[in-house]
Amino acid sequence: MRRRILLTILFLLGSLVLIRAVPLHARGPLSLNATKTVSGLRIVLAAPPGPHFLGELILVTVAFTNTAVGPLHYTGAPVPNGCTAAWLALTGGAAPFYDVPAPRPISCPGQPAELLTPGHGVTAQGLVQLTASGTVRLVARPVVVESRGASEQESVLNGPSLLLHVASTAPVTRTLLLTYHNSTVHVRVARGALPALLVQTVEDYTTGWGETGGWVPLKGATLVEPYSPSMGHPTTWAVLVGAPGYRVAVGVYTHAP
Fold it and tell me: Do 48 and 155 have their domain in common?
């Protein structure tokens, strides 16, 4: 009986911005990192060393290598698409918390499996927002599906984890600010030069939060509110603007339905 393993790549509060297959010897140095081998996969989890602060957007790297004698199969989302879920998890922490608007649940088709041959691996990077203060744990929890005949069984691997110490306030030089004027959001930094920005938006047209994708680049420092000739402006428009190493700025703007 042929044994197949599927690795589902999912991300929390962010997007998969890079995924590529690389030879085993091509690993670069990682900053704050942890390694664990589970079910024939050597998983490396890496994050910036900090210091970290509440609301910060961090770029997390996950590298997994096939150390088994046979091929493995994995599946995932190489671009932001709104279908990603919690493969990276944040646990622990304490108040104060940093709340962000969340999109409504949506249904997505399954992702096709990709081949990963022995001795080769995949490196992926995703954006995660720190939403709790104190000591939080960042955990990699790949979902594996083992095919046995006509049935498949899913299980969550207990992958490597990192402890992050999160301050409750952000440095002024790492704080982004939003102002709203004439249906346009303007972004600035409290002090210092403005970094390359990323944005997420969520719209509500009285029927619930609209669907949203992952983080995408924001050209310039302004964002115009969407408008539809048939529906007008959304009743609620939520804007999240961030950059790696900066506190995410959140604006929620409402109109009478």
Answer: yes
Give the domain-ending residue among 117, 148, 167: 167
C-alpha to C-alpha distances, 16 to 37, 133, 151, 168, nearest whole angstrom = 22, 25, 29, 27
Residue 159: closest CA among 93, 86, 215, 92: 86
Cβ neighbours of residue 70 closer than 8 Å, sequence gap 6 or more: 3, 118
pTM for the model: 0.78
- Cα–Cα distances (Å) from 135 to 16, 48, 56, 131, 168, in that order, read 25, 15, 14, 11, 11
CA distances from 195 to 55, 58, 173, 247 (A): 16, 14, 11, 12
Q: What values do phi and psi take at 62, rounded to 5? A: -125, 125
* 172 φ/ψ angles, rounded to the nearest 5 degrees: -60, -30
Domain boundary among 167, 197, 228: 167
Run means of pLDDT, 10 residues per run, the chain, 257 residues: 37 40 38 88 89 94 84 53 60 90 58 74 84 93 67 71 95 94 92 91 62 77 79 76 94 77
Give the span between the Cα atoms of 64 and 122, in whole angstroms.
Answer: 6
Does 201 lie in the same domain as 99? no
